[in-house]
Design brief:
By secondary structure, this protein is mainly alpha-helical. 58% of the residues lie in helices and 0% in strands. The radius of gyration is 20 Å and the shape is flat.
Amino acid sequence: MDGNCECRCCFCDHGRGDASGFGATPWIEFLTYTSRQQKIVLENWSGLIYFIVPSGFMQGRLLDFDVRWAYASHLIVALVGIWFAVRAWPGRAEQQV
């Protein structure tokens, strides 16, 4: 944890202890390497994974949708979820009076 560490592990924050948690490296790795791998898994695998990931995308794949239509179904489910969350926001009824 001295400033000269060259490892690429998530735990090496060089002693900063700032609000970013473990520094920028884990986020960069997630947004580059990990997200590409997850995309491959979601778009190409089949079977049990469709049942254990409750999302609009996976439900679309269960219904034999093409990958594009599965993404579209996920977008629709997400927008409906956002709409419900906004409608259920605490204090909303008092604001409309």
